[in-house]
From TrEMBL:
InterPro entries noted in UniProt: DUF4440 (IPR027843), NTF2-like_dom_sf (IPR032710)
Domain DUF4440: residue ranges: 29-132
Coiled coil (UniProt feature): none
Protein species of origin: Maribacter chungangensis
Extent of the signal sequence: 1-19
Protein name as it appears in the record: Nuclear transport factor 2 family protein
């Protein structure tokens, strides 16, 4: 009985550590994504974005190819995403949702603009690599908090 309790306890600790490891991977990947967007590094983004990924912006929704074209041409240049808060939820070992509250400085239609957003990112692990399935911008006030 004592060994069973110890085994269950160690299994719970291991599962918790594993989930925390995934959460950290996703946080790092999301931060890299913002930098790749700022750098207009469409090769790295093309590898990250799932072929069926969707992107929801203030001005519309579109799929991977259009998002990459927008970034490459600079019609939206994600100059800087200042991340204020991040929360990650995992679902098993292959699915994660990340929410981050950001102040985004972007160059859009010839003007620099600054907006507050909560950005929702859905990730799925496929063949050992994390793929971004969805990225949705939600306009919020700068006092908005993400519940952890």
């Amino acid at each position: 009985m004592k060994y069973l309790v110890i085994t269950i306890f160690l299994s719970l600790i291991s599962a918790s550590s594993f989930a925390q490891g995934i959460e950290e991977q996703i946080k790092v990947l999301s931060q890299q994504k913002w930098q790749w967007m700022a750098n207009k590094d469409v090769d790295k983004l093309a590898s990250l974005f799932h072929d069926k990924s969707k992107f929801v912006h203030m001005s519309g929704s579109w799929k991977k190819d259009r998002e990459l074209e927008i970034i490459k041409t600079g019609s939206i240049w994600y100059k800087n995403a200042e991340v204020h808060d991040v929360a990650v939820e995992t679902f098993g070992d292959d699915t994660a949702i990340l929410w981050n509250r950001i102040t985004l400085t972007a160059h859009v239609r010839g003007n620099d603009v600054k907006n507050e957003f909560t950005v929702t990112e859905f990730y799925k692990k496929e063949a050992g690599d994390w793929k971004l399935l969805d990225l949705t911008f939600s306009s919020v006030r700068d006092t908005h908090k993400i519940e952890h």
